[in-house]
Design brief:
With 257 residues, the chain is an alpha/beta fold. Helix 4 links the parallel strand 7 and strand 8. The protein folds into two domains: 136 residues, 3-Layer(aba) Sandwich (D-Maltodextrin-Binding Protein, domain 2), CATH 3.40.190; 98 residues, Periplasmic binding protein-like II (D-Maltodextrin-Binding Protein, domain 2), CATH 3.40.190.10. Strands 1, 2, 3, 4, 5, 6, 7, 8, 9 and 10 form a ten-stranded mixed sheet that branches.
Length: 257
């Protein structure tokens, strides 16, 4: 009788726990998305880093790839559990997302062109120029900053960096502006490594963070703590080398010092 009573109580406890805290049941697998291919250096790095982060959280990570603008909609509407990598201030316009406060890298935005005469340094250096600029749809830093300094008629959006680079190569645009990691991966690809494309300026610097849906706030707090521990363990440096992740901005700063 006592054994039967104990079993009933235990079953009720489990059911009650699942009912009030979904993390005990359906939240054992997170679908996190990015526009970065898992075979690119930055994609490999993100997959390595956050697979380990979520392993320590006892959560299985599913790496999803979609266009950046689509991810923004899906993450905000709970179709995804979060986004792999966005700039620090991305959350200012995303009330349904919470930032993992510890960044996974420091990076920036780069300008790419074929004309060696073009030299840029910061968004403001585009002021009073007539350059035709192309950038990737859904990249928040470009969407916010470029319209401040470039006339609407000189701005063009593309669905991917490859289309943007081809427009510059065909002289349909003067400059492509995009995130450092995307730019470096594309420039190093077989399609563009022997082209005349070159980096013509550093437009901005930022820290990059994972964002999770607000229902996962507790996981965001724990993930930040784990990321910090992993940095102290030297794991992020190890993963960076393993992924072949480069930093144009970091190398420039080291040269100055």
């Amino acid at each position: 009788m006592l054994k039967k009573y104990t079993c009933v109580v235990l079953c009720l406890f489990v059911l009650f726990t699942i009912g009030i805290n979904p993390s005990f049941s359906e939240l054992r697998e997170f679908s996190i998305a990015t526009h970065k291919l898992p075979t690119s250096p930055d994609g490999i790095f993100l997959n390595l880093v956050y697979t380990e982060v979520f392993r320590r959280l006892s959560v299985k990570l599913k790496y999803k790839v979609y266009p950046a603008k689509r991810i923004e909609r899906m993450a905000g509407s709970r179709e995804l559990d979060g986004e792999f990598s966005r700039i620090y201030h991305y959350g200012d316009s995303q009330p349904n997302l919470v930032r993992v406060e510890e960044p996974h890298w420091e990076s920036g935005f780069l300008a790419v062109g074929v004309d060696p005469k073009i030299k840029l340094n910061g968004w403001h250096s585009l002021n009073s120029t007539s350059y035709k600029i192309v950038y990737r749809r859904g990249i928040k830093g470009c969407e916010i900053n470029l319209p401040k300094y470039v006339k609407a008629g000189n701005l063009d959006k593309v669905s991917n960096i490859y289309s943007g680079f081809h427009k510059v190569m065909r002289n349909w645009a003067d400059i492509y502006v995009g995130s450092e990691m995307d730019v470096l991966s594309a420039l190093d690809s077989n399609e563009f490594k022997r082209s005349d494309l070159r980096i013509v300026g550093i437009m901005d610097k930022f820290t990059a963070h994972m964002y999770l849906h607000k229902r996962h706030k507790i996981f965001a707090l724990r993930a930040a703590k784990i990321l910090k521990e992993m940095k102290e363990e030297g794991l992020l440096d190890k993963y960076r080398k393993q992924a072949g992740l480069k930093s144009y901005i970091g190398e420039k700063e080291n040269t100055k010092n």
